[in-house]
Design goal:
Layout lengths: L3 E7 L7 H14 L5 E7 L1 H7 L3 H17 L8 E4 L5 H10 L4 H5 L2 H12 L10 H15 L5 E3 L5 H18 L7 E3 L29 H9 L18 H9 L2 H13 L3 H27 L2 H31 L8 H7 L7 E6 L5 E6 L5 E5 L5 H12 L8 E3 L5 H12 L2
Parallel strand pairs: 1-2, 2-3, 4-5
Antiparallel strand pairs: 6-7, 7-8, 8-9
This protein binds tryptophan.
The site of tryptophan has 12 residues, from strand 1 and helix 7.
């Protein structure tokens, strides 16, 4: 089997903080060390245009995030690490997908709906302040994913709907133009901790309660001492449950260290001392990365080079050949060749085949596709996979397909018969 492809995007609209590191960067860098996966990590700067109106902030954030991932141990020679806007095939694919996507699908997107609901509450026009960028956000994200036929997409829970949309969009395209896209899946890691911030709520830029990952040591210390605690005095036993200080410690310490800290809480450690220990731990983990980060950030041309080189190689290997195939499929074709010549020029590598799948209606279907993935026959729904499988077997053995399936539009019975013969001849 081909390697699993794992892909995720990071929108460059802020400065990385401890929560980003523990929740996204560290697990991703660890996962990228596995040899049985092909990983894609990219800076979704086209998405940043939707979120922020500050050009300089996007540049700065792109630099900081790229330097952070490299400082955290991402190896750009082993994974695909690139910037979205360096791959012009992505906006091109966005348009191809736009043309097979119902407007109603996007009407249902949470972020868009929230904006419309807020306008209704304010008595404003429903679409006041809503850009087409916000509306199209899920389509651009689908193109990011489908461009590289990613199987798994690690995201936060808030992005799961976008992944469902990407699957719907991929299925519409496949249905209309042949099987080009893998249907991607969201991978939401329940085990990954969301870190609390300074005020005890989830650490997030929007709550202004973050601890920047690479704050200088003195600032880090000041911030750690600003983490909320309760008013228990030294010597009074303290709760670890619900303590932001304890939770942050746990995310950076070993299990043994965490247990030791738990015991200290029970014994009534003073908050000041607990903060001292937390700071020492954070600084010990972060300092070596911070040194690398500072070197990297001082040489933006090196980071530019890393990103450019990633995009160039990725375009040559995947994006350019794939978009050529997709353009052909939708009808953006050369004029100096007939369809038959084009088909001939392209080596037929795949054989016709039956595919079985389940639909949202709960029934089991099959279809018969040619070597290009074009649908020739569409099976009707069966109650069980076994019945669908039996129909497929019968057709392969020479039974008339008409009792279980219909020819696809524009496909002649002759073409179907020829493809079935090819299949049976194996
Ligand atoms: N929308 C994602 C976020 O805000 C970022 C993103 C853009 C992304 N394109 C993607 C994530 C493709 C995964 C796959 O977090």
């Amino acid at each position: 089997m081909a390697q699993q492809r794992i892909l995720t995007g990071i929108t460059p609209s802020g400065t990385p903080h401890l929560g980003n590191y523990a929740g996204a960067i560290r697990p991703a860098v660890e996962a990228s060390r596995q040899t049985d996966v092909e990983s894609f990590y990219f800076l979704s700067d086209y998405h940043a245009l939707i979120k922020t109106g500050s050009p300089e902030r996007i540049r700065r954030s792109t630099l900081e995030i790229a330097a952070t991932w490299l400082a955290a141990g991402l190896r750009p020679e082993r994974v695909w690490f690139y910037r979205q806007s360096d791959i012009p095939e992505i906006p091109e694919l966005t348009w191809l997908l736009t043309c097979v996507t119902g407007k109603g699908l996007l009407n249902r997107a949470h972020a868009y709906k929230a904006a419309v609901d807020k306008n209704a509450l304010d008595g404003a026009d429903p679409d006041a302040g809503v850009t087409m960028g916000l509306f199209m956000y899920p389509l651009l994200m689908a193109a990011d994913i489908l461009m590289f036929n990613a199987h798994k997409v690690p995201v936060g829970r808030d992005q799961v709907q976008h992944l469902e949309m990407a699957r719907d969009i991929a299925a519409s395209f496949n249905h209309r133009h042949g099987e080009h896209f893998v249907l991607p899946e969201a991978a939401v890691d329940e085990a990954v901790a969301t870190l609390p911030g300074l005020d005890g709520r989830k650490m997030s830029k929007s709550y202004d309660n973050t601890i920047p990952l690479f704050a200088p040591a003195a600032e880090l210390k000041k911030l750690v001492f600003g983490i909320v605690t309760d008013s228990r005095a030294p010597g009074e036993p303290k709760e670890t449950e619900g303590s932001p200080l304890f939770q942050i410690y746990q995310a950076f310490a070993t299990p043994d260290e965490t247990e030791a800290m738990r015991a200290r809480f029970r014994e009534g450690i003073a908050w000041g001392e607990a903060k001292e220990i937390l700071f020492d731990k954070l600084d010990a983990v972060i300092a070596p990365m911070r040194a690398r980060y500072e070197e990297l950030i001082a040489e933006p041309e090196r980071i530019e080079q890393v990103l450019k080189s990633g995009a160039e190689r990725l375009r040559a290997k995947y994006a350019m050949p794939f978009i050529a195939k997709l353009r052909e499929a939708v009808g953006l074709r050369r004029l100096d060749r007939t369809l038959a010549e084009t088909a001939q020029a392209r080596p037929k590598t795949r054989k016709p085949q039956f595919r079985q799948y389940r639909e949202a209606d709960g029934l089991f279907y099959f279809k018969f596709v040619d070597g290009d993935g074009r649908v020739l026959l569409q099976g009707r729904g069966f109650a069980s996979p076994r019945e669908a499988g039996q129909a497929v077997a019968d057709i392969k053995n020479g039974a008339d397909f008409a009792q279980w399936a219909d020819p696809a539009e524009d496909v002649s019975r002759d073409a179907i018969a020829r493809a079935l013969d090819a299949l049976r001849a194996e």
